[in-house]
Known about the structure:
The complex is a heterodimer of chains A (567) and B (155). Chain A contains 18 helices and two strands.
Amino acid sequence: MNTDNYTFQFSKSSKYLNSVLLIIPMVLLFIGVYGGLMQTLFRAGIIQSDPFVGGDYYKGLTFHGVLNAIVFTTFFAVALGNALIPYSLKKQLNSKISWTSGILMLVGSVLAAVVILLGEATVLYTFYPPLKAHPLFYVGLTLLVVGSWVASYNWVPMYLEWRKENKGEKTPLAVVGMFTTFIIWFIATLAVATEILTMLLPWSMGLVDEVNVMLARTLFWFFGHPLVYFWLLPAYVMYYSFLPKLAGGKLYSDMAGRLVFMLFIVFSIPVGTHHQYMDPAIGAQWKLLHGIFTLAVSMPSLITAFTIAASLEYAGRQRGATGLFGWMGKLPYLDKENWFFPYLITGLVIFIFGGIGGIINASYQMNTVIHNTAWVPGHFHLTVAGPVLLAFLGGSLYMIGQFMNKEIRLKGTAMIMPYIYTIGLFIMSYGLKIGGLKGMPRRTNTGASYANPDSILYQPDWIPYINLTVVGGVIMFIGIVMFIAAFFTTVFSKSRPGTDPNVSNVTFPISEPLHDEDAKWLRNFKPFIIIAIILIVLSYTPVIIDVLQATYGGSVPYSPNSPVPLR
Amino acid sequence: MDKSEKLALILSMMLLSLFFGAIVYASMARNIEVPTCITDVEPFLTDTLFQTGPDEYELQMVARMWAFQPSVIRLPKGSTLNLYLTSQDIIHGFKVERKNVNLMAAPGAINYLQVTFDEAGEYKFACHEFCGAAHHTMAGRFIIEDDSNEPETAE
């Protein structure tokens, strides 16, 4: 396929839907980002209650987590699939199904957001029972997830039809990546759907008296770790498909990309217990097993580090670089017309540190040092709020330009934003990580106790690190404001002159492979899904048995505001 | 697959094997473990501290909104403590500074870890899982004393 000039005519309805799927979550993202800024101020003791939305640190933390990590990411993954799958397969979406999916997701997200902002669901994004949220919080999350399932059902018949018509041809890599994302998402969300629909929702409505807290927690983390690959994989799709071409080169190896996606299918789910190393009621040997699989799932990321670096080196040499490291200086870091490139390259640099931190967290005993300390948010801001967020922001701006047929406005601002954000992110994460190593807990309003000189709990040695998070957080916020300015200026600008928005075509910077191999064994998802299911059964059966055997009594619901149970 | 790709693959695998080896070494040779599944302890909801041998103590600790019971524990230097932890209401977290002690406290389950205090001093601990409006005030400390007084606890 000559990718240089290839464009695809999306139906008017799917262009409109995809624009909605990008614009509304951007508003929700900004509310969440505002919550993030407020948290750094709370933690430093600068504010005691939210000046605009009202409520305390924990309410802000809940909407920061839910809106940024769950709502925004899910919408973007669906929008990217709705864009790349029709584009790569040259087939139209079924617009009834895609609108049903979009409406379910919008209704669910708005419902959850409203309940949280009213202070009826201050349970954080992990919603561990027996803290109870309003039933509509659980309903909202369910609708969001079901909506994302519906979106992916839409793609399956398109893909099957394409395979029938193109026997013996390789599935485009972007399509493989998007299906991988949603296969993992589908398997993982089955566990959280079970948790919500059979345990938490009936219990929060009063139909069931008690829940097994450890079982709910285990089901949550069955979902909770693959969730991070659901965030990461759309970013990987853009690294493999877009980045080499944006850099002016080719993808070093097509087969590496396919291998990486299949390894993610196999290893991303049987790993959830590494979030529960410090939990009771789960045997240490099973925790170790999940730890081994976690090391295995870092393999595809190490392959990616090599492949993408090699692709960038090739691009640099194409641009005339010489010597061993000359290519690093030749890449289009500050080219206003190539504003998308900075979003991906900054994310890759951040992910070096995110990846190292992740391996530390997964390393069994070493987790004792950092579990639930501020190190953990320090780590995951270097992943989900680093490479994932930046790639998603760049992707959103690119797609909104394509689907609304607009020229990107404030290109300079958009181009420089990832660098500013990255500086802020490094400062904030450094503060959180080192503070965490000194024992500072995560999810804690330190400003009201540990960082307050008048409190008997005052911890003077945490203060410098808490202050760093304020500095970093403010810089990150400035970066996001710059992005929002560029995004909405583009949305509200006039369409490209002289073109009819109804017939304009959409294009994506799809890279060509440098090394292209047949790799027939990597062409079918089925064997990898089967291996994944076997590993899940092997790794989770003993964990669930342990949890059921070692726990006693159920838990009645509690409100975060009182030690007296709700019934 | 070209040569450099194969090399990268092999190096990655070696790196991960090294990490895995380190985990196994720490577990087997240094006996550094994570909490495991406990089924042989009677459920408890009151806190107790008693001596089980020379320099060896057992503490049953209860976490609740928003305090640890007990929240101050005095022990002589050199004590080995068998620490059992549960929760009376919702999920709490427990981490002792400068010590490899990090436990989740969940209702309906008992968590366990052994820790030895070889050096005198104060070891603070704080709840590290969100447990409601006053979560940030839930904390306590071990006081390890040079001269071996009677161990005691306080709310």
